[in-house]
Amino acid sequence: MPDVLSNNLFFVKEHVGMFKAASNFDIFDPESGDTWMECREEGLGLFTKIFRFTKYKTMTPFNIIIRDTQGNQLIRVSRGVSFFLSKVTVFDENDEVIGGFKQKFFSIGGAFNVLDAKDEPVCALKGKWTGWDFRFLLEDNQLAHVSKKWAGMGKELFTSADNYMLEISDSVPEGHPSRKLIVAAVMCIDLVLKE
Predict the structure, then answer these.
(1) pLDDT for 83-99, tens place per residue?
(2) Has residue 168 got a pLDDT over 90?
(3) SS3 call for 125
(4) How far is it, in rounded angstroms, from Cα 112 to Cα 83?
(5) HSE-up of 73 (CA within 13 Å, CB side)?
(6) What does residue 183 show for φ and ψ, rounded to 5 degrees?
(7) What is the DSSP letter of 15?
(8) What 3-state DSSP class applies to 37?
(9) What pTM was computed for the model?
(10) Where do the DSSP E strands lie in 95-162?
């Protein structure tokens, strides 16, 4: 596993754009400001681009590739067309399935089951409907926390760009596959629940 995924704090910044169809992000070291990873939505089809500007945008498919600064794929997050509940698949650097997310039925604020490669639950991702606050929970233990960072009133009013802080608990071992699932979940939250 690349060293960058062994860190516990990640600052995720969505690219600013007034009329953008693709969702693109950069992931930084929150202390130094160095870029650690680039997340790009590639190969959008014409119809997907068109539907991204309608009320059906949360139903459109996506394929986000998370790469290190040398351009090597670390994680890929993918979903097909979604009519009701989302099922998102997460792949590793070799395009092998490592798990995914299955949206829970009638959850207030947004909730997903985080699944391993065999579709077995790893933990739950739960959000609050009153704000941008999501927690990865294994029973009563918090494995990670994602919150929205204030980016200044001007940017927030005139764009859909968001900034997030991801904090992974020390209880999640370095090199554990769930770290990739947690990093991938930030893309999933934004595209499935918050667009």
Answers:
(1) 666 788 999 999 999 99
(2) yes
(3) strand
(4) 16
(5) 16
(6) -65, -40
(7) P
(8) strand
(9) 0.82
(10) 97-103, 111-116, 121-127, 133-138, 141-149
Q: 70 vs 50, which has greater pLDDT? A: 70
Contact (CB, 8 A) for 101 and 189:
no
Token look-up 């929970």 returns 137
C-alpha–C-alpha distance, residues 149 and 146, integer Å: 9
Task: Place 147 in a pLDDT band, splitting at 50, 70 and 90.
Answer: confident
Encoded tokens for 135 = 């927690």
Note the residue count of the chain: 195
Could you tell me the two tokens for 44?
């959008």
For the record, the structure tokens of 134 come out as 């999501």
The answer to whether 79 touches 87, Cβ cutoff 8 Å, is: yes
Give the whole-angstrom CA distance, residue 10 versus residue 165. Answer: 6
Given a contact cutoff of 8 angstroms between Cβ atoms, the answer to whether 129 and 109 are in contact is yes
Q: Number of C-alpha atoms within 13 angstroms, CB side, residue 112?
A: 30
